[in-house]
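Weekly sync notes, structure subgroup
Attendees: PM, AL, DS (notes)

Item 1: joint prediction request from the bench team. They want all two components modeled as one assembly rather than separately. Inputs as received:
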Amino acid sequence: MKRYSAFAVAREALTGHRGWERAWRRAQPKARYDVIIVGAGGHGLATAYYLGKRFGITNVAVLEKGWLGGGNTGRNTTIIRSNYLQDPSAAIYEKSRALYETLSQDLNYNVMFSPRGVMMLAQTEHEVRGYRRTAHANALQGVETRFITPAEVKKIVPIIRLEGPRYPVLGALWQARGGTARHDAVAWGYARACSAMGMDIIQQCEVTGIRRDGDRVTGVDTTKGAIACDKLGLVVAGHSGVLAQMAGFRLPIESVALQALVSEPIKPIMDCVVMANTVHGYMSQSDKGEMVIGGGADGYNNYTQRGSFHHVEETVRALIETFPMLSRLKMLRWWGGIVDMTGDRSPILSKTPLQNCFVNCGWGTGGFKAIPGSGWGFAELMAKGHAPLTDSFSLDRFREGRFIDESVAAGVAH
Amino acid sequence: MLILTCPCCGVAADEIELAPGGQAHIARRGPDSTDAAFEEYLFLRDNPRGVHFERWRHAMGCGKWFHAARCTATNEVFGTYPAQTTEPPQEIRDRIAERRTDQPKDSRA
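Output from the run, pasted for the record:
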């Protein structure tokens, strides 16, 4: 792999840009791998990367039924934050946020991490109390957040209306080192680094069956033939239920559609992320100037990759209440992704009933922010059988009642 | 927009009139059940990409619960039926079998 640098750009500029290589090799499957990861999204690629980087396991294939980063990695609103209430969540999300800080240097690929600040508005008395509690919890967890006043909110986001028609802004939970990153670049950067370590990233290779010998996985059947493996990691977000069905176990997961939309590009008006969970909308401005908008997930099981219009209507209504100046803005693009929701709204990074099969899923509506931390922890779990970062997120927590209850802690949007 | 006919009041209701209630036909476990049985009852779901039997409430209409058979991959609706059943009626199963030769008659494993 040729390193990207200012020197490389200058050299290529002088030679007509003929020397650039493909970022990753186009691989065909071998007969056998030490580890197969199903799903070449952010979490799958990050897992493969840290398997190689931290544990020296490089005989790895990452299988992808569509194209790399074409699932939820390419469909989210790119928000990165770690202001969670529960200790296990704060640990994994803060590890993730911290890895994002230096990810561009680590991968030698510009993921455009922009710690522009994440503001979660408190618009009811209950939310004020909830976020004050979160700020205290975060102080103990070593996550830097603080509760700010409406005057500070207005100073940071001048376009906001503090006296909304339904809910006034009573304060906000502010995480100054939260922000956004370029979502595709995260997947591409990890893919390039994995390929450079000799791993095979095999696109348009759909897993159609999982081969078992008793309670051990021996390999997978794919549209490109059978591939054997010692360990299997399922990292397929919304389609986790489908893969689990192939493997012969059930998951505490329901898949629903989550939508997002972007406006036409406008001049810079807001240099942080604002989330309004009571009225239910969140927004940031991309580097191109588009307003990137997200809202609530649908309530019923869905694999159609398109959601219900009334949810978009609610989101837009919420944002116009909060930012009246946006009311004439035209929307350019609108899409949906299939997210995997668990009962306690926390992810599952776990062993499964099959000995050498591991599952990383249930990130629900907030997986993008967790990509580096999830990969870091899940790689350790796959390599060593346990990991401090992921042990609390095991599948048996549902049976044992050890929930990591973020559905209460985070209100709605993740 | 998803439209389901409420079998209780007969109204063809838009999804904005309806509240989704998740997977149908889950048996309530008794007090002597194991932790595993309660886990199954409370959390484990089929979540199929295909025919799904599910609960809905006609929240902005007659207020009654009912069941629907819907494909989660296409939103095709195979019919609705009253909630006072422990399994999908034969008529609904037949309709699914007629339209979906590739699908099992019952998505439950």
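Discussion: Chain B has one domain: 3-26+34-99.
Action: AL to compare against the crosslinking data before next sync.
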